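Blinded run. Sample ID left blank on purpose so nobody reads anything into the name before looking at the predicted structure. Input follows.
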Amino acid sequence: MKHLLTIIAVIITVTSFGQSADEFLKSGIAKHNAKDYDGAIKEYSKAIKVDKNFRDGYFNRGVCELALQDFKAAKKDLDKTIEIDSTFVKAYYSRATVLVSQQKYLEALPDLNKTIELDPSTPNALTLRGQIRAQTGNKIGACEDFLKAKENGDAKAEKYISQFCGNEQQVGESLALDWPDAEKWKVGDDQENAQQHVIDLIHSNETIDKWTELGNMTSIKGVKGISVDKAMNLMFDQAKQNSPKAKLTFIEKDEKADCPWIIFTIEAPYFKNDKIPESQLWYIVQGKQALYTNFRAVKKATVSDELKDKWIKFFKAGKIVNK
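Blinded prediction complete.
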């Protein structure tokens, strides 16, 4: 009799396993659609309790948590969703949305890349990635995304095409630098006034006050006709005010280019108010409408040859674009 009861119990459990998970899911969806997110989460949690690998339970619960701005819980559930099904497009896009909602824009790029790789027609994915690329200086990549999004029927893309990709009513110039997605950059600081626009970039796991590598893009508006040698010396003179032992090393320039440019390093072993060294590789370009001063920096007394080669290739791939 005991053995028979055990068998009956197993049969009941197995029978209710699929049904209960689906029933809880349907109940959760009904509450979800009614915007009763807390109630929906309870139902989805019941479904997950029945089936620990219930993909839709984790995904839907994560979406509700996102709606309630419980970003930590939402990301955890979406991580689990992707662990269960690594091809579930909606989970990647939703996880990217979680990160964007926390202003972790560059951290969201890998998930957007995966979303677009799996399904380029995913609504808003290309437009969202384009916005992030535009914000971080990758105007060329941004325009490619906006144009493709428009082809896919995303009505919002048109506005961004006009803003960033050329329009007779909007004339402007900018320097596009393609900060590698794999390096997980994010905007650490972004300040703009009538004279200049300054953006500092750091790695996603660091802060603007505590970083190992820093990227800087500065547009000095309306400054034209400055020789690149003069611009280099101005930057060096400024560095020496805080670091008297700073060293300037010219690397390469092209004064005959349509937009003249120069590359050099400034290596500071210490500063007057800070003993931590900092070395920078600079790339300055004289545009038609502004002077663009950019650098990448590490907290070391010198820039290694390996980093020099990497950073020089990075900067020389930049382009002046008009919008």
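Unblinding after everyone has recorded impressions. The beta strands are 173-176, 185-192, 196-203, 213-221, 247-254, 261-268, 278-286, 290-298, 319-322.
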